[in-house]
Amino acid sequence: MEKIHTDELPLTTNSSEKQETVCIFGTGDFGRSLGFKLLQCGYPVVFGSRNPRMSSLLPKGAEVLSHSEAAQKSDIIIIAIHREHYDFLTELTEVLNGKILVDISNNLKINQYPESNAEHLAQLVPGAHVVKAFNTISAWALQSGALDASRQVFVSGNDSTAKQRVMDLVRALGLTPLDQGSLVAAKEIENYPLQLFPMWRFPLRLSAVLCLFLFLYCVIRDVIYPYVYEKKDETFRLAVSIPNRVFPIAALTLLALVYLPGVIAAILQLYRGTKYRRFPAWLDHWMLCRKQLGLVALGFAFLHAIYTLVIPIRYYVRWRLKNLTVTQVITNKDSPFIPSSAWLNDAYVSLGILGFFLFVLLGITSLPSVSNTVNWREFRFVQSKLGYLTLILCTAHTLVYGGKKFLNPSFLRWCLPSAYVLALIIPCTVLVIKFILIMPCIDKTLTRIRQGWERNPKISSALNGKTDI
Ligand code: NAP
């Protein structure tokens, strides 16, 4: 953690409004950063320290006292100390009686201790009102100004008045408090900063496996096969041609995988005749990762668009064009203009552009700053209706590109069809099932189920453990 030089930082205290004094135990990185921020917002700050001496690192204007002297000056005490050093607080139980103790601590590992640090603190000082807060904000973010990603402060505590006062303090610092309920929630709040992209793991792993598989598939078809049968060196395709095949296929497949769990869930609900039975855990997790899957798919679509733009400047493409022109001049023959080919070509390009445009729109609306401005119905319209339209356009783009050649047996290499055929399997499956699901007779039953109707309420409540059958 970089040390702050508080002398260089401006202090903007609001003298007209006298704020309550806030006490901070611990003059480490977090204590100092929070103290500085509090002073900036007009709160008098008193530090409780083992060595009560003013140092140049501490914010100007703050007082430094012993723990017990500092605690007497304030109702709110922020414990900016690691959990391992909490034991000394038992000696201060008398002075801490009735005070609000704010536990900001984090651990090194998820579920490191049987009980949360905040609950441990509450056991050490039973007369105090312990509130968990601030642990998801870094000292760096406090110093550099609250950034979007770190504005949210999860707050939990058993005493509602104490919790409210801490939430007011959080708001006064320009941060956003999120009430997480009682102190039981502290464990989850403490685990939160230790998680590493939990929702991104599945989408990233899946796309890595998918890309690797598609890459090897294309290498076998487009590099190894020509070498074995025609002794042609096509290895140059590894740089642009093959990635520009892998990326669109990955994009389309992942986009379809965003919508596949929805149709699986609908089939399950129809089969069970109720919405009150839990989905299997894998389906739940898959549904929760849909946004991330969609964003990874959008990333691949972007790569495909960029790779496609460079096609005209590629050496291989320019060489082929030149050769074709020279051959036509020598043989005095030109190739006839085929309107159907022009149509197909323009159609697939146009479908690709429209699909990409809607894809970007979907990505933009999934950003929290945008989704916060639309209501639930608008969000569902964009993500579901426009999402399916994007899937249709992108699938049509691939279908039109392949045209009849996908079905031509001469396109098989070692019995392997073109990689684009693989790209169509999941999207077409999703679209066909979706089409069946929106047929009025099925859609009516599904809508009733989603509104709470049950084919056999006894079975569902028994399976949910409510009654015996
Ligand atoms: P730090 O720089 O190591 O400071 C901890 C402070 O605790 C020390 O400066 C010391 O202050 C006090 N202390 C150390 N040993 C002690 C002992 N045996 N008895 C009593 N007091 C002792 O740590 P930090 O980074 O500020 O973190 C403090 C707490 O904030 C931790 O629980 C951490 O998980 C949490 N947190 C930190 C960050 C961050 O970005 N740093 C973010 C969120 C949460 P005195 O010398 O003044 O007594």
Write the H/E string, N to C: EHEEHEHEHEHEHEHHHHHHHHHHHH
Total count of helical runs of at least 4 residues: 18
Helix content: 40-55%
Structural Rg = 31 Å
Q: Report strand order across the widest sheet.
A: 3-2-1-4-5-6-7-8
**What is the rounded distance between the termini?**
60 Å
Could you say how many structural domains there are in total? 2
Q: Give the bound compounds.
A: NADP nicotinamide-adenine-dinucleotide phosphate
Beta content comes to 5-15%
Total number of beta strands: 8
Contiguous low-pLDDT stretches (5 residues minimum) are 1-16
What is the top-level CATH class of the largest domain?
Mainly Alpha
Q: What is the CATH architecture term of the largest domain?
A: Up-down Bundle
Descriptive report:
By secondary structure, this protein is an alpha/beta fold. It has 18 helices and eight strands. Strands 3-2-1-4-5-6-7-8 form an eight-stranded mixed beta sheet, with helices on both faces. Helix 11 packs across helix 13, helix 13 packs antiparallel against helix 15 and helix 15 crosses helix 16. The N terminus is likely disordered. NADP nicotinamide-adenine-dinucleotide phosphate binds next to helix 1.
